[in-house]
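TA notes, week 10

Several of you asked for a full example with nothing omitted. So below is the full record: structure tokens for the whole chain, then the designed sequence directly under it. When grading your own attempts, check the secondary structure regions first.
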């Protein structure tokens, strides 16, 4: 049996369905992420698991016990908030000890458990400091330690890294992965950052307008999106709309307006005339001054309309002869300064027939 089960949970605010009849399950020891844009319902769902909000219908079962109606302080669940919510006038040790004191845990046990929590988050030696004397990453770890000290069955994290700069955020992602493995507590993590979700999670629930669009492992969500929304929201993706023009063995040809015939792997239930979208990641596209027509099944000419240099890669927006724009990536891996194309340069783009993933309308 799953540790946490969400069964047909809904939450409405007037006519707006923030969470619309969602069902999902989370296993013990899992790092599970609720991912989606602002307003998709992910934080509302997290708040209902924590007990800060109540569902209008449905069940939230933890180890088979329905949490609906149980006050937040009586749930074996702890939350790490976006702003960490540390008490500025308390030391690190006092902040961590606070929930134990509220639970009237004996003083000698509090000392031991605070020391263990500090060791878990690698902050031994910081017990006497105050929050203002800590870096953002250290404050985040104190907030996690305060949540872990109560030994919850479930740790909820509401965008805890959003206030950190990019480099520190990357460091803290690694810290969270290692910490979750060490303490072996189930994490339910909320974020709108796709890269963060892909890096951290065992599984991801991609949410949109109060619904779960796809629940899967990160690699499958990225490579095999089930809906156009997921393909477009997760990373960067070329979305080529068209109708199936022909079927041949394990492949088909898609008639894409402004581009022409595009060869693709054959999806299930393919039929000539059926419409859909080919989701094609930019890193799957080869871009060069000239590409032999023998090297790939799909081959088009165009010119560089725009480019974006990102250091490790350059993003090229190529406009094909038919007027369609295709985004491609080129790694800047050459020694010294890589050779870049410039805006206006003529280029060839190509990709293998099985590089994309076809989605039906």
């Amino acid at each position: 049996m799953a540790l946490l089960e969400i069964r047909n949970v809904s939450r409405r605010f007037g006519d707006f369905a923030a969470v619309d009849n969602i069902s999902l399950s989370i296993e013990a020891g899992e790092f599970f992420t609720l991912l989606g844009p602002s307003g998709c319902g992910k934080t509302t769902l997290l708040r209902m698991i924590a007990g800060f909000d109540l569902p209008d219908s449905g069940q939230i079962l933890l180890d088979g016990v329905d949490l609906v109606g149980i006050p937040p302080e009586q749930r074996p669940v702890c939350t790490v908030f976006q702003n960490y919510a540390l008490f500025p006038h308390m030391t690190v040790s006092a902040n961590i000890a606070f929930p134990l004191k509220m639970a009237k845990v004996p003083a000698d046990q509090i000392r031991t458990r605070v020391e263990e929590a500090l060791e878990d988050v690698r902050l031994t030696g910081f017990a006497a400091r105050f929050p203002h004397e800590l870096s953002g990453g250290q404050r985040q770890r104190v907030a996690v330690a305060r949540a872990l000290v109560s030994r919850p069955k479930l740790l909820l994290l509401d965008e805890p890294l959003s206030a950190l700069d990019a480099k520190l955020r990357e460091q803290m992602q690694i810290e969270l992965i290692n910490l979750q493995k060490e303490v072996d507590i189930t994490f339910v993590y909320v974020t709108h950052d796709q890269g963060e979700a892909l890096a951290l999670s065992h599984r991801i629930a991609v949410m949109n307008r109060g619904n779960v669009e796809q629940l899967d492992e990160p690699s499958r969500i990225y490579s095999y999106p089930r809906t156009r929304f997921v393909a477009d929201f997760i990373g960067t993706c070329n979305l080529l709309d068209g109708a199936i023009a022909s079927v041949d063995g394990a492949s088909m040809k898609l008639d894409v307006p402004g581009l022409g015939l595009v060869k693709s792997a054959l999806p299930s239930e393919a039929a000539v005339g059926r419409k859909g979208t080919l989701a094609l990641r930019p890193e799957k596209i080869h871009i060069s001054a000239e590409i032999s027509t023998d090297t790939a099944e799909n081959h088009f000419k165009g010119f560089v309309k725009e480019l974006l240099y990102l250091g490790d890669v350059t993003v090229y927006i190529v406009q094909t002869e038919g007027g369609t724009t295709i985004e491609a990536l080129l790694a800047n891996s050459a020694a010294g300064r890589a050779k870049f194309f410039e805006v206006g340069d003529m280029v060839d783009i190509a990709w293998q027939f099985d590089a994309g993933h076809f989605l039906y309308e």
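The mean pLDDT is 91. Use that as a sanity check on your answer.
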